[in-house]
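Issue: copy button drops trailing tokens. Both records pasted manually instead:
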Amino acid sequence: MGSKFLIASAIVLLSFGVTTVAQSQRLEFEVVSVRPVKPIPVGGQRGPGGVPGGVYDIQNHRFTAKAVTLYMLIKWSYGITAKASSCIFSECDFLTGGPSWVRSDQFDVQALMPDDSPIYTFAQMRDGRAPALQAMLQTMLHDRFQLSLHREMKRMPVYVLTIAKGGPKLTPSKNDEKPAFGVNGNPAVPTGARMVFGRKASMANPALVLGLPNVTGRPVLDRTGLSGEFTFEAKFTPVDNNAFGNTSSPSIFTSLQEQLGLKLEAADAPLEVLVIGHAEKPSEN
């Protein structure tokens, strides 16, 4: 791995779901192609979030994306997708502004990273843990789309995660456990219960998971003050499933309090959002 990539990794800054790289460090693809394509119609190939298109892949040093919007590319390259629970609380909450075509026009992208750059997996890209690749995407967006962005603080409805009366009911993780966290359950079954779980997970992990649309649908801020890694699980019924009369499991609010000794409280909080100041359609190459 080249030293310039070690430097880039060290200067990546995470702030409320936005990843950025210092302007003095410019990383770029060796070769990049951006071509406008006809939008994939509803019923076509599905991408992240179940929307048409939006398929991307990483193979060694090659990044490819099919039928992606500029909106999607910004979310991936600036880590919004990872840090904001796929940014599905509201599609515009953490990324706003820009002309309408930013969210509708689709592009095919093929890019080749330098040979000495890190090799990332699909999961690392999805989780915002590919700093050099994200920096190269940011450079591409600036050069090819003339993209300019700025940050603003915006008050949003959130949930605050705190310790419930009686204290936490969390088990410290064992050294040999493999890290994992998420939500189990079949979303295709409308009356099915879910389970939020964690293995070697800090409180930042469940705070991220709890913000998913099928859990609370809002950003969740960790205010427990708990450090360390824990193993836990809690069964609950998603809010949307109440309409189906499913009472087999408690709500996520009751479940967290009774099973984990944690509490979710509704609040408003200022969060940092990324605003599209300017963007232009790229010329076909």
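Record 2 (pasted manually too):
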Amino acid sequence: MNSTVDLFAQNPVFSALPQPRHQELIDLAIPRKYQKGELVTHAGDIWPYLFIVITGKLRALKESAEGRSLIVTSFVPGDIFWGLAFFFDEMPMPVTLQAGEASEIFIWSRERMLPFLKSEGELSWELTRLMINRMVRANEILEEMAFQPVAGRLAKLLIDTAQEESRKTINRSLTLDEMAARIGSTREMVCRFLHRFADEGIIDITRTEYSITNPEQLASLAQVAKR
């Protein structure tokens, strides 16, 4: 529980609460655990909850009419998200939430969280700021999807993933399907461009990992694609 308390104290939204109220909020939370691949809620569900990730990773998925999935964003420990019905009655979820790995979250219904939001102005302010940041990021994703070619989106994904892992190699546990879902493409296109990058000496592909051998050229691909 101490680690959970620390997580609340470090979170930009919940840290706005007076320290004595952190435990009160934790006591009101409903803990939920999920295995990798398990769904938290489906797109279209009426889900009036707000949550914080305690351990693991959740993914927000958007599916096309053809059944193709796009990973819109991911949530890691300390991240907060919500269903639209938390704020607006009967408004459905725009995305599906799925556990990307074994995960635990704390959730609150609107009824349990509303007294905090009404009594603690700083908490409401920080939640509003978080919502604005999410809107800005959603706009960036739309621009990338609309104007950035597949090669540039894939190059950016490789760079971002390597930076997250603080290394120049990427474990191949990140599958072609997952890459395709993250950049809004198909596994066939991802495979084609990965091998093109390899042929051009930008990356090296082994049985277990992708190694970035020419980070400057990979960064150039990501940048040129934005112009």
